[in-house]
Amino acid sequence: MEHQNPRKTVAFLLISFLLLQAPKPSLSQPLLSSPPPQPTSIAPKHHPHLHRVLTGVLLGVLTGAIASLLFLLAVRASVHFAARTPILKGPVVFSPQISSRSLHSALSDPAHAPAGDCFQLSLDNGLVVAVKRLELDRPNASSPKPNLRRAQRELELLARAKHQNVMSLRAYSRDQDRFFLVYDYLPTGSLEDAMKRVRAGQMALGWEARHRIAVGVAKGLRYLHFDCSPRILHYRLNPANVVLDEGFEPRLGHCGLGRLPAAGGSDVLGAQCYAAPECFQSCRYTDKSDIFSFGMILGVLLTGRDPLDPFFSCDSAAGGGGLGGWLRHLQQAGEARDALDSGILGDEVVEEDMLMAVRIALVCLSDLPADRPSSDELVAMLSQLHSF
C-alpha cells in the first residue's frame, strides 16, 4: 500500500480551511425570481457555534499534520546524517604528545608487530604508550560500515573521560576491521600482574596499598557512573583491566569497550569469573553489574586468591561456589578471618578493617542487582575504614 504524501495532505487541509473562511453570499436581498422567504419559528442560533467548532477541529488537524511532517523530516535528516558520517582512515589523536604521523609509522613498522591483544609501543619522540588491539565483529561482511561508524562514535565518547582513576583514551587507529586503542603506559602493570607476584612471593602488598587500590577503583566507577554524560559502564572490570602506577594508585583501563561491536577477547574465561549473574541469565548489563565485578576484585585483594584457583572447584572444600560463595559461607559461619590473606594479618586494627571490607564485598556480590550499593555509596563505605 502506498503511503499518502504528507505535503498533499497539508495542502488539502489548508484549502479546506480557506474555503470555510471565504465570505458567503448575502441572503438579505432575495433574487427577483425567488419567492419571499417563509418565516421560520426557530432561528439558526447554533450555526456560529458549529462554525467555530469546525474551524478549531480543522486548525488542530492542520497543526498536527504540520508537526508530524516536520518530525518525519527531522528523523529522516538525522538518519541521513548518521549514515553519511565519514569513516576516518588515519589515526585519530586526542593528546598533544602524540602525532598522527608518528603513531601511524610505529604501528606500520614490522618490528613492532603486536604479540597479543595488549602491547607497548615506542613512538619516534621517545614516548612509550600502551596499545590494545580490538577486532570488530562483522555480522554482515558485505556492509561493515555501520559497525565502523558505531565504533567511531563510541570511541569519541570514551575519549572525553578524564579522571585520575580512569585510563584516558589518547588516540586510536583503524586498519580495516581492527582498531588500535592507545593509552598511557604504566610500567607497574596491572593489578592481576601484581597479585601474581604477591602469590609467588616476589612482591609484598600490604593492606594499606590494597585499601588504596579498592578506593581508587570505586572512585573511578563513581566517575563513570555519575559524572559522565551519557553514563559509561565498564562492562569488563577485572584485575587485568586495573592498571597501577608507581604509588599503587589504580586506573580503570579499557572502559566502555563492551558497547563496541567487537569480537570476544582472548581471556573469556577469566572475564567470566568477574561477571554478574544477570549477564548470563538475561544478558542485561547495568551499573550494578560493574559493582558485582568490583566485589570480586575486593575479594581478591582480601584473600589473595585467584578466582580460577582449583581450590574453588566443585570437588574442593570451597564447595564449588567460587570465591564469592566461599566468602559468604565463612562469613555466615563466623569464620571470615580464615578467608583473609595471612601474609598481611597481624595488626588488630588491620584485621578489623579487613573483616569490615569482607562485608562490603559480600554486599557487592549480592545475587540481586537492587541489593548491591551504588558506586557512590561504595566510596563512602570504603572511606569509613579508618586504618589509614
UniProtKB/TrEMBL annotation:
Superkingdom classification of source: Eukaryota
GO function terms (MF aspect): ATP binding; protein kinase activity
InterPro entries on file: Kinase-like_dom_sf, LRR_Rcpt-Like_S/T_Kinase, Prot_kinase_dom
Cleaved signal peptide residues: 1-28
Transmembrane segments: 52-75
Keyword line: Kinase, Membrane, Receptor, Signal, Transferase, Transmembrane, Transmembrane helix
Entry keyword Membrane: yes
Domain Protein kinase: 104-388
Name of the protein: Inactive leucine-rich repeat receptor-like protein kinase CORYNE
Taxon lineage: Eukaryota, Viridiplantae, Streptophyta, Embryophyta, Tracheophyta
